[in-house]
Design a protein that fits this description.
Number of helices of chain A: 8
Radius of gyration of chain A: 17 Å
Oligomer: homodimer
Structural class of chain A: alpha/beta
Number of strands of chain A: 11
Distance between the termini of chain A: 30 Å
Largest sheet of chain A: 9 strands, mixed
Helix content of chain A: 25-40%
Strand content of chain A: 25-35%
Chain lengths: 241, 241
């Protein structure tokens, strides 16, 4: 059931995905398009990289070295193939390891940016999840949780490095408290709504800075669809640039 | 220079204000319109009440007892007169005291809702502020700061009571960390933009619950103006209902 899909609108870029496991989503596109990539940015690491949409899209914005970390071997293989078919092997390295052991692979305090589109859902032993194992691990905090992600981003990042994330709005309080606990200051929040008439946001983009106080820029709200269900002009732009 | 202005759109309601000191703003209207007022709500307290716009507007939504706390005698006098002219003395009590001593006046843990449109700006000894004393105290954290407001809201509120606030977006990280420190869980965040084309929100409405974990509903974004500068339909509605 392996299928090769074009990565919409990113020129000739292609991405391998298996729809039975998961497809890359607009969440990853927003993360890769909104994360701060400074001119001085030399090294980026994407946690929970999946089939590598974030590294691939980031490579259109920067010449930085980009690392993608994926713990599941089957997904890692897809990511590897996507990097190879796009001839980006010299810029993007995919590593098949646990984010909790990341410093063994990449050392400490040398990265400018860590990005993460993490598993969104909390998990407890009794959780009744009707999904295959690979999808379950990608969507639920089975192998890693929010706190472990933030701890390891902190280890990898330089002083004043950026940590960028997309997540469900209901967890933003918890995220900000954990960022505070590990000495990150929240800097940017952007709410993402499916459409203008919706009563609540379905996603947030957040960015924090290591060893910094919180000082938030609340960015322009993103609306993914028009009321008739079509993609908004902004969504089309995010996929096309 | 005391002037009596109509409180726009709230029927016959009138509010006394002195434009040299300060006028009530859309911020207070949003706070009073978006705060959670349950059917079971019996007692509400508005900190830093100014000329009492929040109690006055809340009185159109609920039969609860409403207290407004104002430390500055001159502003307290205006609030008193506004309550009297609207014949709301039996529902709204304005108290001229320091929020930091509020439990001496109102006891502990008996309120369902505490609202606050606080001084927005941090203050340090050297701050160069070109404003008269009354305005300075209303806008800067001279007599009370965020932490003191949250501590005292915690003392006044019942278990699971609501604390609602409007503030500048840049301070939302600090606010959420303080809420966490004093055992509030953030529940609602609503960004307020001047207009759709703006690059960032100018205000946020936040609501938290005492003795609760954070679980955020990210509400529909508010746009105050159309691109041509006119009030948006929503703003007109907020002033009219």
């Amino acid at each position: 059931m392996e299928v090769q899909n074009d990565l919409l609108g990113y020129g000739d870029m292609k991405i391998f995905q298996n729809t039975e496991w998961f497809c890359f989503s607009i969440d990853s596109v927003i993360l890769a398009r909104y994360a701060t990539v400074n001119l001085t940015c030399k090294k980026i690491c994407d946690f929970c990289t999946g089939n590598a949409p974030v590294p691939l899209i980031l490579s259109t914005r920067t010449k930085s070295e980009i690392y993608g970390i994926e713990i599941q071997k089957e997904i890692y293989d897809l990511a590897q193939k996507s990097v190879a078919v796009n001839k980006l092997d010299s810029q993007i390295k995919i590593i098949n390891c646990d984010v909790k052991c990341i410093t063994d692979e990449l050392g400490i305090e040398s990265f400018d940016l860590v990005t993460c589109n993490p598993p969104y859902f909390e998990y407890s032993e009794g959780s009744n999840i009707n999904e295959n194992e690979i999808k379950r691990i990608a969507r639920h905090e089975i192998l890693i949780n929010l706190e472990e992600i933030i701890i390891n981003a902190g280890k990898l990042l330089k002083n004043k490095g950026y940590f960028s994330m997309v997540h469900r709005p209901d967890r933003i309080g918890e995220i900000i408290n954990l960022l505070n606990k590990y000495n990150f200051g929240i800097k940017t929040i952007i709410p993402v709504y499916a459409k203008k008439s919706d009563a609540h946001a379905k996603l947030v983009f957040l960015e924090a800075m290591k060893n910094s106080k919180p000082h938030v820029h609340f960015g322009k709200a993103i609306y993914l669809h028009e009321e008739n269900g079509e993609y908004s002009a902004l969504t089309k732009k995010l996929f096309q640039e």
